[in-house]
UniProtKB/TrEMBL annotation, chains A, B:
Entry GO MF terms: GTP binding; GTPase activity; kinase activity
Keywords: Chaperone, GTP-binding, Hydrolase, Kinase, Nucleotide-binding, Transferase
Protein family according to the UniProt entry: Belongs to the SIMIBI class G3E GTPase family. ArgK/MeaB subfamily.
Pfam family, one: MeaB
Gene3D superfamilies: P-loop containing nucleotide triphosphate hydrolases (3.40.50.300)
Lineage: Bacteria, Pseudomonadati, Pseudomonadota, Alphaproteobacteria, Rhodobacterales
Name of the featured protein: LAO/AO transport system kinase
InterPro entries hit by this protein: GTPase/Isobutyryl-CoA_mutase, GTPase_ArgK, P-loop_NTPase
Length: 321, 321
């Protein structure tokens, strides 16, 4: 590999917005190569200028189509826009949702748009680091709006969307009971509520339900100086997107001073915790005889909790030697 | 609390199938009370007789209705049946799906049926222990078929369903692209495929798609001496359930000897790993200054990975003192 450029040397061209350098750093961050880690640290310390928008919604809420429309709208307003989409995919064979991404392909030649789809391969926890590292890379590359799109199902997916400055939760009319129940779990992290498919007649009910929930004091997010708006949109009729983009900016303004500091601290705390937990468990598992212990647990001569105690105790005394 | 009975003393009545004792142990296991842990260990060592069936499917696949029908069918065949349903619910305000459970309420007075709905409250990881502890309690209480029902979205939910002797994956016709992609992630853990809603005309396509996938060698699960069948069912027309119950028994037979040993080892390994990881992280977080480190990370003077390194290093040297 004669043309292999060390990751540290990619930081400067990436900072000038050179797509080839950005793409290489992202691929290396996504693969979590050890060579890239020093660069990721340096990039983290330089980043922090972009407006990061987390967008989440249950399956079938139409959020991917919405993101494609948003990208067009933000580009038309002269913004440099990046999208990091976390795709649910097989934990065994891979395979991310290409259809939704392809709808954005008319943007493929626009240098001020960057779209990256990341397949989770069943390990969303690990994905959280990589996705937020990718956001930092896009941040130093000068993208001013970065959208993280996740399916709002599963704790990790919701946490990733919430590790942003502005969290948008997409609701849609006409989903089943079970989907609605899952949705209930994400409404409370919203800074902005969007109801998609407002061309449908049953969308009024969805809007009304959301608004009445907000009147009851639920779903306003956690920021004291902000009340989450409910915005209706139709990707089909291209409605609601100006209002949504305006809400992004309004929410960003609301983060000036203390609210923004609190938000950044919350995101940092999440990233630190994820990184520390992963590192701790990596060390623990490398130094412990999990397989031997599992055999005893399988024979039911010892229960998993006692076996776990023993492993943790052995690890701690190992660390002291 | 004059009538408080220590958990260790509940084991005997629970083993005789006394519902009040079973219910108390389950509530304590679910709350993860420290008093119950010794009893859980003892219960684990006594358990291992029931046939544990994991049943999972994407939202909208009709699996809860299917479980209700299955319970009736298994009861009619003279089996003692228990259901542990892991409900997706708000990570913030709680609120599990009651509707589906209520459909089973006609069984509420049958002593040989036990149905427990567990809300995840956003922490599915922690739920895995509790759910499998509950399965052990039901096991020593003499239930011979125990169904664990989860939404097949998110790594933890899928792992819980897979921590069973027989994993059933429910597919349904007419779900959207995004749901189908999520579904793709769970097909490969199936020992038995069920297509629900076979009264619908578009269910033929779902059956054909699944069968052609199996012909391509995908979706057969991991057990060398077993080929996953595809069973059509209709809860509405009460079709396919005899076949499904027969498939449960046939799969159980296939687990005799080495395949069953391998399966038990895999489940034990999963439970041990979850327990050990939780315990390790609990110790780590109790002894580390996460908040202080997060402040530096928020100020971007240090990146999360370097800060994590420091925390892990400090913990290890702490353990040695």
């Amino acid at each position: 590999m004669a043309d292999y450029i060390p990751s540290m040397d990619l930081i400067e061209p990436a900072s000038k917005g050179e797509t080839w350098a950005v793409a290489r750093l992202i691929s290396r961050a996504e693969a979590n190569m050890s060579e890239v880690r020093e660069a990721i640290g340096e990039i983290y310390r330089r980043a922090g200028n972009a407006h990061v928008i987390g967008l989440t919604g249950v399956p079938g809420s139409g959020k991917s189509t919405m993101v494609a429309k948003l990208v067009h709208k933000l580009r038309a307003a002269g913004r440099r826009v990046a999208v990091v989409a976390i795709d649910p995919s097989s934990p065994y064979s891979g395979g991310s949702i290409l259809g939704d991404r392809i709808r954005m392909s008319d943007l493929a030649l626009d240098r001020d748009v960057f779209i990256r789809s990341m397949a989770t391969h069943g390990s969303v926890g690990g994905m959280a680091h990589a996705a937020l590292d990718v956001v930092d890379i896009l941040d130093i590359a000068g993208f001013d709006k970065i959208i993280i799109e996740t399916v709002g199902v599963g704790q990790d997916e919701v946490e990733i969307a919430n590790a942003s400055h502005t969290t948008v939760v997409v609701s849609a009319p006409g989903l089943g009971d079970e989907v609605q129940a899952i949705k209930a779990g994400i409404l409370e992290i919203a800074d902005i509520h969007v109801v998609s498919k407002c061309d449908r007649s049953d969308s009024n009910k969805t809007m009304t339900d959301l608004k009445s929930m907000l009147r009851d004091g639920i779903g306003h997010g956690v920021q004291p100086n902000w009340r989450a708006p409910v915005i209706g949109s139709s990707s089909f009729q291209e409605e609601g997107f100006d209002e949504l983009v305006a809400a992004f900016d309004k929410h960003l303004e609301s983060l000036e001073g203390e609210p923004g500091r609190a938000r950044r601290e919350q995101i940092s705390s999440f990233r630190l915790r994820k990184a520390a937990e992963a590192l701790m468990l990596e060390r623990f598992e490398a130094q412990s005889d999990f397989d031997g212990a599992a055999t005893d647990v399988a024979a039911r001569t010892v229960d998993p909790y006692s076996a776990a105690e023993t492993l943790v105790r052995n690890f701690s005394s190992e660390a002291s030697s």
